[in-house]
Specification:
By secondary structure, the protein is α/β, with parallel strands linked by helices. Helix content is 30%, strand content 26%. Strand 5 and strand 6 form a beta hairpin. It binds flavin-adenine dinucleotide.
Length: 463
């Protein structure tokens, strides 16, 4: 057994761990990066990038088969070759992963340790069978894993998670997606547009992605119910493996019980932090109910120890840019300990890459104090440019603070949501009032004119 003595040990070479390692090194610390799985990051291997590749193919199929209302006819079939679709998803995914792996390989070999890390005590890690690392500070950046509820765990290879989808060689015929969160909606709609018979089953609370505004959630529910078989409130009563299929019995919101058979169940029922294999019981860290070290969300420090927790591992904002920001700050604080600094967070922004897209900026509707804000609204159904493009489905709420007239948040489903989300997040971070936002230029005819309508309606309610 060899023991290395370092300043900073980073556990996990993902989107949080890589910037943590680099930030610690930039501070002059002797740092090591420990990885127990494949290099490449969740985002590039099985997350952001392959999901967007699948969605890009789905959008191409959708556009090719939606031209007739413009008087443009695609004569003959729009043919989707599942093998070619999946081949492109995998090969482009491999390209993105390759860039990450190249970056890792450029790090000094002595800084890269392979194997699962476990705590032996507060400052000592066991890595694999033959290495121990004594570290002055430790960054936990171990990411998260899909939750597979117990009732599906005995059904074998017909129960899959996002990781498995991106390994498919061909598209299946019929899939049930369990969970109407971000991943379930994105993959469910994409598969449906690619010709897979999709049934998407949401949970008891009828959530649609991350939306917390009940009007926007209801509108989004209607949009997806029209697009494919979406049971936003369903209760799965039984799941049984029969040959190469899975039989599902579920109860719909209206009480009807449905029996159906699927090639695959795609479980998208949430993710949990990867902390189970860290042997945290060997430390003096206080753990929360999910076994995650209790930590300060500003400095990312766990208790009073020189241990920091960043990215999906802390279970708070499971998004790529948040993981990267947290990783950088955790690495810096680990290197500078005890001189730790708070992380200055960017304006909250999240996007669901469905069509129409869902986005949220700033304060969630559910977190606003009832009397402190007004709502401005726009429907994209009659919005000029959206209608020109036949993408006129959507509803937006913007929230403005009564006292300061400042824009504080928005939730919506609508066209170009990913781009509009950036405009609004930048306005929020600049602490703009709705009046200052309305003084900005709006070109004609653009989807952003819809945002102006929503801001004007908020301003009128503030007057
Ligand atoms: C299908 C899907 C789509 C997504 N789409 C988006 C998107 O469009 N936009 C967006 O912002 N975010 C998206 N995300 C979320 C984003 O991918 C994550 O927030 C981000 O990858 C988290 O990075 P991380 O560093 O925390 O974890 P990871 O990148 O998973 O890194 C954690 C690393 O730790 C390693 N590890 C775990 N335990 C140990 C141990 N004990 N010892 C050593 N190593 C260990 C793991 O092997 C892994 O390599 C998506 C996620 C999924 C699953």
């Amino acid at each position: 057994m060899k023991t290395l003595n370092v300043d900073v040990a980073v556990i996990g070479a993902g989107s949080a761990g890589l910037p943590a390692y680099r930030a610690a090194k930039a501070e002059g610390a002797r740092a090591v990066l420990i990885e127990g799985g494949p290099y490449g990051t969740t985002c590039a291997r099985v997350g952001c990038m392959p999901s967007k590749l699948l969605i890009a193919a789905a959008d191409a199929a959708h556009h090719a088969s939606s031209t007739a209302p413009f008087g443009v006819y695609v004569d003959g079939n729009v043919r989707i070759d599942g093998r070619d679709v999946m081949r492109r998803v995998r090969s482009e995914r491999d390209r993105f992963v390759g860039f990450v792996v190249e970056g890792v390989e450029q790090m000094p070999a002595e800084d890269r340790l392979r194997g699962d890390a476990q705590f032996v005590d507060d400052g000592l890690l066991q890595v694999g069978d033959d290495t121990r690392v004594r570290a002055r500070s430790i960054v936990i950046a171990t990411g998260s894993t899909p939750v597979v509820p117990a009732m599906y765990r005995t059904l074998g290879d017909r129960v899959v998670v996002n990781d498995d989808v991106f390994e498919w060689q061909d598209l299946p015929r019929k899939v049930a997606v369990i969970g109407a969160g971000v991943i379930g909606l994105e993959l469910g709609q994409a598969l449906s547009r690619l010709g897979v018979a999709v049934t998407l089953l949401g949970g008891a609370r009828g959530h649609v992605g991350p939306l917390s505004d009940p009007d926007i959630a209801a509108y989004a529910r209607g949009v997806f119910e029209q697009a494919f078989r979406f049971e936003s409130r369903a209760h799965v009563e039984a799941a049984t493996r029969v040959g190469d299929t899975v039989q599902l019995r579920y109860r719909r919101a209206d009480g009807d019980v449905v029996d159906d058979t699927f090639d695959y169940l795609l479980i998208a029922a949430g993710r949990r932090p990867n902390v189970g294999r860290l042997a945290l019981h060997n430390t003096s860290l206080a753990l929360d109910g999910d076994g995650v070290p209790v930590y300060d969300p500003l400095t990312l420090q766990a208790g009073g120890q020189p241990v920091f927790i960043a990215g999906d591992a802390n279970g708070v904002l499971p998004l790529l840019h948040e993981a990267a920001d947290e990783g950088r700050m955790a690495g810096l604080n680990a290197a500078r300990f005890p001189a730790v600094q708070p992380l200055v967070r960017r304006a909250p922004i999240s996007v669901v890459f469905t069509d129409p897209g869902i986005a949220m900026v700033g304060a969630r509707h559910a977190d606003l104090a009832p009397d402190a804000y007004v709502v401005g609204e726009v429907s994209f159904e009659d919005q000029g440019r959206s209608r020109v493009m036949l993408r006129n489905r959507g509803l937006m709420h913007v929230y403005a603070d009564r006292a300061t007239r400042r824009f504080v948040g928005a939730e919506w489903i609508g066209p170009d949501a990913e781009h509009i989300a950036h405009l609004l997040a930048w306005a929020l971070q600049m602490k703009l009032t709705v009046d200052a936002m309305l003084a900005m230029p709006f070109y004609h005819p653009v989807v952003e004119e819809g945002v102006r309508t929503a801001l004007r309606s908020a301003a009128a309610r503030l007057a």
